[in-house]
């Protein structure tokens, strides 16, 4: 059952991603990308990452994609103009490069993680069931990665200042 | 159980993102393809975290933070370029060409 659900979600996600990169209108691309993100959230649930799935819907499908659609609206790019795809030679080169990259990635991923690192099956699912989805993620985040978490706030501050400075009328 | 299929799906999504970056000329669509690539990497982290511990899910948080910062700054750059050039087509934008 889980495997069937996984392949349904994965198929929809891959199909939506393909439509996202081939649609002419940026709005259509953005909406297909939202569809991909929702299906990835569903896959996260199947992989015992419930909290990540919720954050994926809130932050990615909610905040970031609204930002994209807002910019598309602001720049009035919604009207369908001439296609921005590259010509036939560009498509051939991109297709070949994409296939090479795909085969490389698949070949790399056939190497499974070393056995001594792998936890016994069900450990993560057990942790999530015992402590709740939020606490299971919060504990490593606020213990082992506390410094990185604090540095992230500096990164966000830099992003806010940078966006304001760049979007000012006079550079 | 779902590890190998997840990694395969993630590889396909990443390749589609790279393909989009190489095929399109619209700067905003290229940004969306970069988001697609980041999501493919997130899927790898989550899939491996099921076997290697919850640290992978913590990393997904950091990737999402970087993605949000990148989207905000990148779209601000797109708006600034659009003001100067009246286009987001990368063929017409050659600010860095000498």
Tell how many strands the DSSP assignment of chain A holds.
0
Rg of chain A, nearest Å: 20 Å
What structural category do the secondary elements of chain A indicate?
A: mainly alpha
Kindly report the CATH topology of chain B. Helix Hairpins
Order of helices and strands of chain A: HHHHHHH
Compute the average pLDDT of chain B.
89
Q: What structural class do the secondary elements of chain B suggest?
A: mainly alpha
CATH class membership of one domain in chain A: Mainly Alpha
pLDDT < 50 runs, ≥5 residues of chain B: none
- What is the CA-CA span between the terminal residues of chain A? 56 Å
What coarse outline of chain A follows from CA principal-axis ratios? globular
Q: Regarding CATH, which class of chain B?
A: Mainly Alpha
3D shape of chain B: elongated
The radius of gyration of chain B is 17 Å
What's the number of extended β-strand segments of chain B? Answer: 0
Main β-sheet description of chain A: none
CATH architecture classification of one domain in chain A:
Up-down Bundle
**Distance between the amino and carboxyl termini of chain B:** 53 Å
Description of the structure:
The complex is a heterodimer of chains A (171) and B (98). Chain A is mainly α and 171 residues long. Chain A has a domain at 1-78: NADH-ubiquinone/plastoquinone oxidoreductase chain 6, subunit NuoJ (Four Helix Bundle (Hemerythrin (Met), subunit A)). Helix content of chain A is 77%, strand content 0%. Chain A has seven helices and no strands. Chain A has helices at residues 2-22, 26-46, 50-74, 88-109, 123-131, 133-143, 146-167. In chain A, helix 1 (2-22) runs antiparallel to helix 2 (26-46), helix 2 (26-46) packs antiparallel against helix 3 and helix 5 packs across helix 6 (133-143). The model of chain A has no long low-confidence stretch (mean pLDDT 88). Chain B has a single domain (3-92), classed as Helix Hairpins. Chain B has three helices and no strands. In chain B, helix 1 packs antiparallel against helix 2 and helix 2 (27-52) runs antiparallel to helix 3 (55-85). Chain B is elongated. The N and C termini of chain B lie far apart (53 Å). The chains are: A mainly alpha (171), B mainly alpha (98). Chains A and B meet through helix 1, helix 2, helix 3, helix 4 and helix 5 of A and helix 1, helix 2 and helix 3 of B.
